[in-house]
Amino acid sequence: MTLEDFKDGQVLLIDKPLNWTSFQVVNKLRWNIKQQFGIKKLK
Asked: For an engineered disulfide with 5, which of 10, 26, 27, 38 has Cβ 3.0 to 4.6 Å away?
C-alpha cells in the first residue's frame, strides 16, 4: 500500500484480538502508518 491509498481513504478490515478495544486497534494502526510513511497527522 502507498501513502496515497491511505490519504484517499483506503478501507482496512481488521480481525482484532478479543482483549483489545477498537480504540486500541485504531491507535496502533495510526502509529504504524505514521512511522512507516513519516507523516505527522492521520485521520
From this structure: 10
